[in-house]
Design brief:
alpha+beta, single chain, 6-stranded antiparallel β-sheet
């Protein structure tokens, strides 16, 4: 996870350093490849960013970016000192792409991933965008493609020490990546299964 392009992980106040260290030590599913990436510079005094992809062989089934923001003075819009910001993308089967309830279902995957791991969060907001591509001319042999994109942010609840459980939030975010990629749920370390809202199949007529 330790690329050299983002903010130095040892920089910043102790709560931020602890939150980053928890991100770096999180244990994730083997299908997920994660690396540090360049952090945004203007959203908060301190930031740390990760990129991840759900990989099956040589194919990326879904990918995304998760950014941890920290403002020691707090932020009125966040209602806290930390904020998580994400972008998740994946290709969709035509049947799923045609479902009119798809945006609501995708948003439920995000909120469900957090609640399934018992994570409380505040001030959630975001968008779900569905896009379709049709190919012409020299690309006409390609079948139409559909993509879903989730952009969201939320305020993780902090402990008494002022540090959120960023490892658990990263695990929940990876659950979302796997969900949108179509992977089955996996048993947690304690033997329980993280249960998420299901992917919608073809609609009946």
């Amino acid at each position: 996870m330790d690329g050299a392009q983002g903010v130095v992980a040892d920089a910043g106040p102790p709560p931020f350093r602890a939150a980053v260290e928890a991100l770096r030590g999180a244990r994730l599913r083997p299908q997920i490849e994660v690396e540090q990436t360049r952090s945004p510079k203007r959203l908060a005094p301190y930031a740390y960013a990760l990129e991840a992809a759900v990989v099956d062989g040589e194919e990326d089934l879904a990918d995304g970016r998760l950014v941890l923001l920290h403002d020691p003075d707090g932020h009125d819009a966040w209602q806290g000192t930390f904020r998580l910001v994400t972008l998740v993308r994946a290709e969709l089967e035509p049947e799923m792409a045609a479902d009119p309830l798809l945006p609501e279902v995708c948003w439920s995957w995000l909120t469900g991933a957090l609640s399934a791991r018992g994570l409380a969060c505040g001030e959630p907001s975001g968008t779900v965008t569905r896009a379709g591509s049709h190919y012409f001319g020299g690309l006409a042999e390609r079948p139409p493609a559909s993509q879903i994109e989730i952009r969201a942010s939320w305020t993780p609840r902090e402990s008494a020490a002022g540090v959120p459980d960023t490892a658990a939030h990263l695990a929940a975010w990876c659950d979302l990546l796997c969900q949108i990629a179509g992977l089955p749920p996996i048993a947690a370390a304690d033997g329980s299964v993280v249960s998420l809202p299901q992917r919608r199949g073809p609609r009946s007529t």
